[in-house]
Structure formats: structure tokens, C-alpha cells
Amino acid sequence: xxxxxxxxxxxxxxxxxxxxxxxxxxxxxxxxxxxxxxxxxxxxxxxxxxxxxxxxxxxxxxxxxxxxxxxxxxxxxxxxxxxxxxxxxxxxxxxxxxxxxxxxxxxxxxxxxxxxxxxxxxxxxxxxxxxxxxxxxxxxxxxxxxxxxxxxxxxxxxxxxxxxxxxxxxxxxxxxxxxxxxxxxxxxxxxxxxxxxxxxxxxxxxxxxxxxxxxx
Length: 216
Known about the structure:
Number of strands: 5
CATH class of the largest domain: Alpha Beta
Number of domains: 2
Strand order of the largest sheet: 1-2-3
CATH topology of the largest domain: Topoisomerase I, Chain A, domain 3
GO molecular function: DNA binding
Helix content: 40-55%
Protein name: Tyr recombinase domain-containing protein
Keywords: DNA recombination
CATH architecture of the largest domain: Alpha-Beta Complex
């Protein structure tokens, strides 16, 4: 199970995914029309020779049954999603009719299981506690991935596209999580200043729009 949890966590983080786009809700069963399978995974090489991985999410909060594609690349880091996924596939061998992050259990009740949200978070947070890290919720991977790409110097527009935010929803998202992001940006003055300025400008814009709506 640990290998499946790691592969899922790395993918959530680097693709800025919502937890429900990789995990199965605890009160639901696996369905290939909704949940990701190994058939949803493909690899491609861009014109510059860089290999990337494309994941097709069959059903998303925004696009519903149309689904959406997300992309991540290899990383020179222990959280490399490609390395983690390859290891998971090699060890757990998810079949075409199974959840991508299915795994084999051991013991008297051993068998094949899909990775559900609560099982994932429980296993992840157990490991985090042992490593003296803070516990997380499902949305923390999306927040953390956003911060990671901003700290790397990627533009807000690039991160918005990667996270698949429409219109002004990304700006609202940044303001909502500013208390999480801002303290970790202090050591990078230019980015920190730009981040706070971006949030402040959007706050003023929202107030102006609200005022206009009230007068109309």
C-alpha cells in the first residue's frame, strides 16, 4: 500500500490535482467512467526532447464527464512522480479494469484494493508523523504544489494553467490560501512582493465590482 500512497501523493503534488481526481471517496466504489485507470496514462516527448506524462482524469469537478488532461514531468527529487508511478506499476501491477492506484493486501483478508481517500490520508499522515512533519488534508497537495511552482519562479499564468483554474478563480484561490503561502515566501523578496501585490490588487478589484453591483 505504501508504494501506491507515494505514487498518488507525488502525482497530486506535481500536477496540482484535487484529491478526488486521484482518490476514491470512502463511501463509493471504483468506476472506470469516473476514476483514473492505467489506460488513462500516456507518455510523450515534446519538440525539445523532454519527456512528460499525461494523465486523463475521466471526471472532474469542473468538466464533469468530459474529463481533463493533466501533465507532469520527471523531477530530480525524491518526489519524482514518474519514478514513483513506475515503481508502483512494477510492484502493484494495476490491471486495466482496476483503479490506477490499486494494490495487493496481505494477511488473512488479502486481495486487491483501490486507494480510498481516508486510507490514503491515514497512511500518509502516519508516515508524516514518524518523520516529524505536519499532518495534511487532501487539499494540501494542491496548495503545496502551487507554492512549489511559484517558488521556482514560474509565472502566475503558468501555474494557473497547470492547475486548470478558469478566469478569476485562480486569484480567489491565491487570496484564500495567502495565509499558507505568504510566510514561506519571505526569503524570496521579489516573489513575495509580487504575490502580495497580486492579492491586494485583486482584493481592490473585487470591492469595486461589489460596489458597482450594489449601486445597480
